[in-house]
C-alpha cells in the first residue's frame, strides 16, 4: 500500500479498513457507485452470482429496491452506504470513468454516522463527485492501449 492510498483522520474514532479488500457491491458506497453505471445485464449477473446478503438492518436485500437505489445514484451522481455493511459507518462514493465512458472504479469518503449524515451529504458529496470527475478527466488523457 502506498502512503497516499488512504488518509486517516486525527480524531478519536478511527475506521479500520484495508485498501484493496473486496466487499459486496450491493451494500457499499463504492460498489453501488459502480453498479449504478454498469449495464443492467451485468448488474443482474452479479446479483445472481453473489446474491444480496444482509449485513445490517439497512442492507438492501431485495433486487427491486437495489435497482431503485441505483436509479437514484445515476440521478444524483453519488452513492451512499447508509450503515449497510457495518452499523455506525457511512460512506459517500462517486464513480470514476475511463476515456470510453465506462465505469472502472470509484472514490469515497467514510466516517461515523454521527459525522456523515443527512445534514452533511450535500456538502461532502460535492467534494467526492469533484474528485471522481478530476480522476476521470485524467484517465481520458491516458492511452491505455500502450500500457
Q: How would you describe this protein?
A:
With 147 residues, the chain is α+β, with helices and mostly antiparallel strands. 35% of the residues lie in helices and 16% in strands. The protein is built from four helices and three strands. The chain has helices spanning 29-35, 40-50, 63-76, 121-140, and strands spanning 79-82, 89-97, 103-112. It has a three-stranded antiparallel beta sheet with strand order 1-2-3.
Topology:
Layout: H1 29-35, H2 40-50, H3 63-76, E1 79-82, E2 89-97, E3 103-112, H4 121-140
Antiparallel strand pairs: 1-2, 2-3
Task: Write a brief caption for the model.
The chain is of the alpha+beta class and 147 residues long.
Quaternary organisation? single chain
Order of SSEs: HHHEEEH
The radius of gyration over CA amounts to 15 Å
Mean pLDDT comes to: 88
Low-confidence stretches: none
Q: Choose one word for the global shape.
A: globular
Biggest sheet, spatial arrangement of strands: 1-2-3
How far do the termini sit from each other?
A: 21 Å
Count of helices?
4
Amino acid at each position: 500500500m502506498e502512503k497516499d492510498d488512504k488518509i486517516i483522520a486525527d480524531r478519536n474514532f478511527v475506521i479500520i479498513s484495508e485498501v484493496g479488500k473486496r466487499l459486496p457491491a450491493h451494500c457499499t458506497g463504492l460498489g453501488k457507485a459502480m453498479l449504478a453505471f454498469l449495464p443492467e445485464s451485468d448488474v443482474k449477473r452479479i446479483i445472481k452470482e453473489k446474491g444480496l446478503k444482509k449485513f445490517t438492518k439497512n442492507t438492501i436485500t431485495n433486487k427491486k429496491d437495489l435497482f431503485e437505489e441505483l436509479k437514484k445514484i445515476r440521478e444524483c451522481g453519488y452513492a451512499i452506504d447508509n450503515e449497510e455493511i457495518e452499523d455506525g459507518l457511512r460512506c459517500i462514493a462517486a464513480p470514476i470513468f475511463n476515456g470510453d465512458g465506462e465505469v472502472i472504479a470509484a472514490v469515497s469518503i467514510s466516517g461515523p454516522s454521527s459525522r456523515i449524515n443527512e445534514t452533511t451529504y450535500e456538502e461532502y458529496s460535492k467534494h467526492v463527485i469533484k474528485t471522481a470527475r478530476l480522476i476521470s478527466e485524467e484517465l481520458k488523457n491516458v492511452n491505455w492501449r500502450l500500457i
